[in-house]
Amino acid sequence: MSVAAAQKRRKVLIAAVAALVASGAFVVGLNTLSKGSGAPTGIPSVVAMTNVVAVDADLPVQTKIVAANLRTVQFPTAQLTSDNVTTMAEAVGKVNVVPLSAGTILLTSELQSDFVNELSLKLNPGDVAVAIPFDESKGFGGFIQPEDRFDILCDSGDNLPAYYCFTDVRVLEVGGLSQQPTPAAATAGAPALPGAPPPAATAPPQVVNESVVVVEMSRADGARLEGVLHQQPPTGEGTIVAYVLRAHADFNPSASP
Predict the structure, then answer these.
(1) Pick the CATH number of 49-117 from 3.40.190.10, 2.60.40.10, 3.90.1210.10, 3.30.830.10
(2) pLDDT (tens digit, 9 = 90+) per residue, 98-151?
(3) Could you tell me if 157 and 241 are in contact, meaning their C-beta atoms sit under 8 angstroms apart?
(4) What DSSP line would sit under 132-148, residue for residue?
(5) Phi, psi for residue 93 in degrees, rounded to 5
(6) How far apart are the C-alpha atoms of 163 and 240, rounded to whole Å?
């Protein structure tokens, strides 16, 4: 081998070693010195690494994860578990169920994925979420927000004054429900006579928008409310006549998350 070729091969080898050292993947280990010789007998070894996802900012609980919150870092493959998040796509769009500090290696067990899970995180232990139609004419013009609280007035139908059938109901979410009724089918009849005017065009079906409010209740109150809403079976509590907004000072602190 020529001197030039040998020097070129050496430069390539040095460059490769330097790249390994710079990436942190090259670890030089020395074995115990041989007895009496005083000479090291260890050889270099390479530690396998895998990319994992880490948090790049402090994230309070129930934060919706975006790519800007994350970064990839190298992690020893031998210490990798099935709980490690290895791609950003696994985390983006989900919410964390525990507070996370910047630099924390992310785990799948610390994430929840969808709206139902996000909603369930807001519930107090033992309570349930109930979706109810919210008629603006019965409920302070529809001006309602999550974390508001209201009372429900019912009419028993016995010529008695309305009474509070549910109190201090906590609002979790507010949404809308679009309902589009199916137009009635045209009545079949005799064929139109030649030259007769075409039938009058029917009006398009009307779209009805109805607000829906998701509230938190105990299991027992949730069952009672469904009975009042659907009257199946009759509950004896009558029907809902109004929703009454509570002052913030009258909220029940024990029902707060």
Answers:
(1) 3.90.1210.10
(2) 889 999 999 988 887 655 556 777 888 999 999 888 877 777 777 888 899 999
(3) no
(4) EEE-TTTTGGG---TT-
(5) 95, -10
(6) 10
**Residue 155: pLDDT above 80?**
yes
Say if residue 207's pLDDT is above 90. no
Closest by CA position to 241, among listed 178, 130, 166: 166
Instruction: Tell me the C-alpha distance between 71 and 142, whole Å.
Output: 43
User: How confident is the model over 32-78, as pLDDT tens digits?
Assistant: 434 444 445 555 568 899 999 999 999 988 788 999 999 999 999 99
CB of 149 within 8 A of CB of 169? Answer: yes
At 225, list the tokens.
């409310």
The one-letter code for the residue type at 148 is: D
- What mean pLDDT comes out for the span 175-182? 45
Phi, psi of 235 (to 5 degrees): -100, -15
